[in-house]
Amino acid sequence: MCVVRPFLLLIALTSISTEFLCQELEPRRWSHLPIGTKFIGLGTLYTFGDINFDPALLIEDTDMKSVGIAAGYIRSFDGFGKSMRIDLTLPYVQGRWEGLANTALT
Fold it and tell me: Are 82 and 90 in contact (CB under 8 A)?
């Protein structure tokens, strides 16, 4: 009975609401694009640094390097009388971690 009450209250509140307000995480993400517009993008990354593990793991002198590339394609089109778009993104990342691990049992 105690579990059912909050669940019913949640259903009641969401069914009588006519509008939900929220914050956009990516501004202008859903702005209209002219129909037939196409975008192509390409990005690269290179990152390196030290990795700090918990001392209980007995891993020391660790560092990492990674290289990546991402290609993207966006196309807007007319669908059901509305402006629609499709986004395709293909990322690829390759990395290497190096360090010393103490495997001796104490």
Answer: no
